[in-house]
Amino acid sequence: MTEIGIRPLARGEYDWALALNNSEVPHVSVHNISTWPTLLAMAAQVPVVEIGGRPAGFAVLFLPGSAYASENYRWFGPRFPRFLYLDRIVIDGPARGRGLGRALYAAAMDFGRRAGVPILTCEVNERPPNPESLAFHEKLGFRALGRQDAEGGSKAVVMLGIDL
């Protein structure tokens, strides 16, 4: 069995992560060479999942108090004074189905516990639909906390949380 590892994103991997991120639009928001480093600098943590020593995916995590202007991140603040927000998780297509997403979620939950937050939050698109992601989150034990229209009504998302 090939070994799965988790480590922080290195500065030299920003271009790789940006390309992988943008390959998954509309399930994640698009970024460019000028917005991407700013997003990553605001994050509390950006874990990378490796399989066999090669990076295959990443997540971007935010704690409360960040300057991050995402309407989905901002939805959680008034409802949860302490939370960890998983902004995005992206796994390279050929590496899917090997437990890499679960490994990133386990790392996020561990980080959240160490940070003293009681809940890990995220959102999943309902419009456009992302049924694979919704099913994945349900299997992990996430529950729906609410819904909102996003991006001027072009998207609808379900807000999810899991107790830590």
Key features of this structure:
single chain; 164 residues; alpha+beta; Aminopeptidase; seven-stranded mixed β-sheet
Q: Explain this structure to me?
A:
By secondary structure, the protein is of the alpha+beta class. The chain is 29% helix and 32% strand. It has a single domain, classed as Aminopeptidase. The protein has 5 helices and 7 strands. It has a 7-stranded mixed beta sheet, with helices on both faces. 27% of the residues are buried.
Regarding CATH, which class?
Answer: Alpha Beta
Strand content: 25-35%
Judging by the overall fold, what is the CATH architecture? 3-Layer(aba) Sandwich
> Strand order within the widest sheet?
1-2-3-4-5-7-6
What global shape is seen? Answer: globular
Number of strands: 7
Radius of gyration (CA) equals 15 Å
**Structural classification:** alpha+beta
Brief rundown of the structure:
With 164 residues, the protein is an alpha+beta fold. Helices cover 29% and strands 32% of the residues. A seven-stranded mixed sheet has the order 1-2-3-4-5-7-6, sandwiched between helices.
